[in-house]
C-alpha cells in the first residue's frame, strides 16, 4: 500500500476537529447527533468535581448559545 493510499485512509476514517465558537472562540460542545449531522453549541459551561459552572454573564440556553449553534454534516466513513 502506498503512502498516498495510507493518507487517504487516515483522512477518511479520522474524526473531524470540534469547531470553535464564531462569537467567542471557545471550543463548542456536541448538543445533538442525528445520523451524520452533528449540532454543536457554545454553552459557556465548565465542569469539575463540584458540578457545572457558567462563565460570567452566561446561563443555560442563552442568546450566545442560540446564535453559536452550528450543524456539521459528517462525511467520514462510518465503517
TrEMBL record:
Pfam families: Ead_Ea22. InterPro entries: Ead_Ea22. This is Ead/Ea22-like family protein.
